[in-house]
Amino acid sequence: MDVDLWVWFAVVGAIIALLAIDLFAHRKAHVIGVREAALWSVFYIVIGVTFGAIVWNVWGAEYGQQYYAGYIIEKSLSVDNVFVWAIIFTFFGVPRQYQHRVLFLGVLGALVFRGIFIGLGAALISQFGWILYIFAAFLIYTAITMIVKRDDHIDVANSKVMKWFQRVTPMTDAYYGQKFVIRRAGIVYATPLLAVLVLVEVSDIIFAVDSIPAIFGVTQEAFIVFTANAFAILGLRALYFLLADLIHRFVYLKIGLAVVLLWVGAKLALLEVLYIPTNVSLAVIALILTVAIVASIVKTRGQGRHAPEVEEAPPFREATDEELAEAEAVFGSKALTRD
C-alpha cells in the first residue's frame, strides 16, 4: 500500500481538528445526556465509515475491507473499555459534568500511546515476520482469559495503580470543579479527578496491548492500523455517555469479543497454511458481534438504564464554597469555580 507522506499529515491534521471541535463544543462543564451522546456517536461513526469508503475508492476493495475489519474490531473492543471507565467513574462518584474533560484527555493519551505501539509493532513485523505468531498466541491466550473471567470486573479500591497513587500523592476527598490539582495552605494536593485520569490512562494502555495485536491480525498496513484505531477511538467519549448506564445489558459482549480474538488469532496462526480472504474475515467478525449484541439485548429486555454497582466506593464529594475560597489553582487562574 503506497501512502504519500502528505496523506499521513492530512489525516493527523483532520484528527487534531476533530479533537479541537470536540473540545470547543464541550468547553463548559455540563451533563451530557443520551440524546447529545447519540448525536456525537453517529457523527463519529459516519466519519469513520466515510474514511473507509475513501480507502476503498483510492486503494482498492482489499484495503477497504481490511480497514472496516480493523475498525469494527477496535470499535467493539472499545465498548469493553467504556465499561471499565464506567466502573472507575462510579467508584469515584465523579459528577457527570466533570467526566468529559477526563475522557477527552484519556482519549488523547490513548491516541498517543496507540500511535507508539503501532509504530513499534510495524517495525517489529518488518524486521521479524515470525512475531506475528507471537501476536497470534497472545490473542488466543487473551480470548481464553476473557471467557474464563467474563464475570470479573476491575477492583478499583485494590488495584495496584490506585494503591501506588494514594501512596505517592496527597489527595483531597473533594472535587474542586474540573481541577486536577489544587494548592491549599501552601501544599499542592491532587483532587480525585487526577486519580481518575491516571486510572483511565492505564486502562487505555492495557486495552491497547490487546487491541493492537488484534488489528495486526487482519492487516499489517501501518496506515490502516493507525486510521482504524484513531477513528474508532475518537468516538469513545460519546460512546461512554451513551452506553455507560447499560453495562448490565451487554451480558454476552465479552464472550463475543473473546470469540473475535480467537478467530483473529487462529487466522494469524494459520497465515502460511490457510489463506482466509479479508471479506470472509470481515463477515465472520461482524456476524459474531451482531449475534452477541442481539442475544444480550434479548436476554435483558425490559431492563432500564442504571449506573454500575460498585462496592466499597469512598465518600468523595464536591468542595463547599468555603473550601473553594480557601484553595487556589496550581495552573492558570487563581480563582476556583465549579466549572
TrEMBL record:
NCBIfam families associated with the record: R_switched_Alx (TIGR03718)
Family affiliation: Belongs to the TerC family.
Domain of life: Bacteria
Keyword Lipid metabolism belongs to the record: no
Organism of derivation: Microcella putealis
Subcellular locations according to the entry: Membrane
Membrane topology: Multi-pass membrane protein
Cellular component annotations (GO), alphabetically ordered: membrane
Identification of the protein by name: Tellurite resistance protein TerC
Keyword match Cell membrane: no
Keywords: Membrane, Transmembrane, Transmembrane helix
Segments traversing the membrane: 6-25, 37-59, 79-95, 102-124, 130-148, 187-216, 222-243, 250-270, 276-298
InterPro entries: Integral_membrane_TerC, Integral_membrane_TerC_rswitch
